Amino acid sequence: MALPSVNETVLDGQLATANFIAGQTPIIIGCSSTGTAATVKAYAGNQPAAIIADWGYGPMPQQAARLSSKGIAVAVCRTASTTAGAQTAVTFTGTGTSVVTTTGNSFDTYRVQFLVVTGGTIGVAGISFQISLDGGETFGAITRLGTANTYAIPNTGITLNFGAGTLVAADLAKFSATEPKWAAGTDLLNALTAASNSAIPWDFPHIVGSMNATESATLVTWLTGLETAKRFTRAIVETVRMASSALWSSANDATWQAVLISDWATQTSKRIMVCAGDVRWVSAVDGSVYLRPVGWLACEMASLFDNARYELGRVKDDGHNTGALDASLYDPLGNAVGHNEVFFPGLYEPAISSIGFTVARTYPQKGKAVYLSKAKLFSPATSDFTTFRLGRVMDIACSALNVFFVTEIQETPPVNPNGTILTTYAEALELQALSILNQQLLAPGRAAGATVSIHRNENLLSGTYKGIVNVDVRIQPTPTTDFVNLTLSFSATLPTQA
């Protein structure tokens, strides 16, 4: 017989295990160049290489890799792509005679520039070039074409084709590419179903890919189904992208906003945050500068700090990871891109933000630092659920109290002779439930107060309330300071300080 002892089992490979933070873990759902669709997988923070290895390139792995590079644990789920990525015709500037074209289907949205460094004849060694994926803001290393007449741009799905002729130093070929897109009723729905069936404990989804109001119905129906199944969450979505990578103008701003307002005029949902507009965003994968939807940054902020404690647009940077977005609304020369803050600060004019879109903005006092104007839910005008934070507060309360009160199902509570619940028993339940709310909401500063009241005067043995215990829960949220009104004047005398 073996001697009694302490036996050790030492696990390896645990540093890459996802350490999900309750309430702050996103699941990124969207297109990628590889991987099995409708499959959910989790990654720890600081694992962008593993994400790219598994899912390749495209919007979903770009967003997931960026979040992971910031130490955020993420779940991901690939959608199939009904609409393939595509490229525009090539615009050529220079004196070379070779005609440059593209083939393939782009993995993502790019602003490609092919710049000739050393000229020569196609098919003869000597030509060298550089590639930019961001409209010339950053260029890759100098590459030699050799004797080839094609060049596959790494990790993009795009191949450049060079017709017979010459290329001359400083020749420039330019084109743009669009990312692939899921179909809402099939590709996206299959991925959403996989997410809801997964045992991975994600907290909120970010749907990567431009979504219109009609497509959002699929998501809203899915979220409603989750609520029925006692899983409470809110989704971040991005809507119609801005038209091009060209410098923005006030006329384009007004036209773009009018299109969005018309599209979403009749849609409301307390469970989706619809983000509008683009920002300049640096990839953690290839270092290129992309124009990415504001929703990408909203998701990042919701993952970096307690999104039920702080508004996602909180300006103060005091050690809680709140503050300015890691993005820009201006190019290196100071020109507005994606949206013109000078003409439409925060997109409050004409009306886009006022009807529920979440947008990016600057504050004159903060220079060109970018913030979320307000992380709004696309709720009806009379709803209490105006922001993502307030929605998350209620989600936490619903989840916690459901877990507690489910233990009372088919319980046999003590009752008075008239069938009403015994006061001491009701009080004990109230105290336990209130303790849970205090732990989940009040102590972390997510709410200012709460009460729990079990109905005392209902007959549990017969009649309308037979077998039914009714509980009223009231939560007092913490307010949000949207405006600070300063009144300043000169005075001949000053009041005495108390």
Could you please describe the fold and organization of this structure?
The protein has 498 residues and is an alpha+beta fold. The chain folds into 3 domains: 26-82 and 181-372, 3-Layer(aba) Sandwich (Rossmann fold); 86-178; 408-477, no CATH class. It has helices spanning 48-55, 59-69, 184-197, 213-228, 250-263, 294-304, 388-405, 423-442, and strands at 26-31, 40-43, 74-79, 86-87, 91-93, 100-104, 110-118, 120-121, 128-132, 143-144, 150-153, 158-162, 166-167, 172-178, 204-210, 235-238, 272-275, 278-282, 289-293, 360-361, 371-372, 447-454, 471-477. Strand 11 (150-153) and strand 12 form a beta hairpin.
Look at the structure and give the CATH class of the largest domain.
Alpha Beta
Strand content: 15-25%
Summed over residues and divided by their number, the pLDDT gives a mean of 90
Spatial arrangement of strands, main beta sheet: 2-3-1-15-16-17
- What is the CATH topology of the largest domain? Rossmann fold
- Structural classification: alpha+beta
Portion of residues within helices: 10-25%
Secondary structure: number of strands? 23
Q: What is the terminal-to-terminal distance?
A: 82 Å
Regarding quaternary structure, what we see is single chain
Question: How many helical elements?
Answer: 8
Biggest sheet statistics: 6 strands, mixed
Uncertain residue segments: 11-16
CATH architecture of the largest domain: 3-Layer(aba) Sandwich
Cα Rg:
28 Å
The shape is globular
Count of distinct structural domains: 3
